[in-house]
Amino acid sequence: MDFLHKAGRLAPARKTTRAQGDEAEDWALAHLQAAGLRLLERNYRTPGRGGGEIDLILREGDGTVVFVEVRRRASAEFGGAGASIQPAKQGRIVFAARHYLLRLGVPPPCRFDVVLVEAGRIEWLRAAFDAG
Fold first, then answer.
1. What mean pLDDT comes out for the span 33-60?
2. What is the pLDDT of residue 118?
3. What is the pTM of this model?
4. Are the CB atoms for 124 and 31 separated by under 8 Å?
5. CATH topology (fold) of 16-129
6. Cβ atoms within 10 Å, residue 57
7. What's the confidence (pLDDT) of residue 80?
8. 8 Å CB contact between 54 and 93
9. I need a surface site. Which of 8, 9, 52, 116 has the fewest CB within 10 A?
């Protein structure tokens, strides 16, 4: 464990926001794999600026491709993790999903899920939003 010297005492270093996000994605992935989904891609990004990113892309046993946004919050205050997925964010995820699907010959059935990691618990929201 990393330690920082602060006010004459040793204290554990705080995790960066990125490290916390990676940890939440690890938890979400383990949860989804335990439910039978298979990982296809992690942190898929479209090329260039202004594109989108998808935290996890998985496939269900029936062939459905599942695009997953993982959100972590320390508490449910201010709407919690779910409230942070605004329409603009959804649009970037849909954009990235369309880009990903272009690589496939025939697009499979797909959906957009959200995994919320809040206060030590995981909540999986299936079909949380659509490509609208």
1. 93
2. 84
3. 0.81
4. yes
5. Trna Endonuclease; Chain: A, domain 1 (3.40.1350)
6. 20
7. 46
8. yes
9. 8
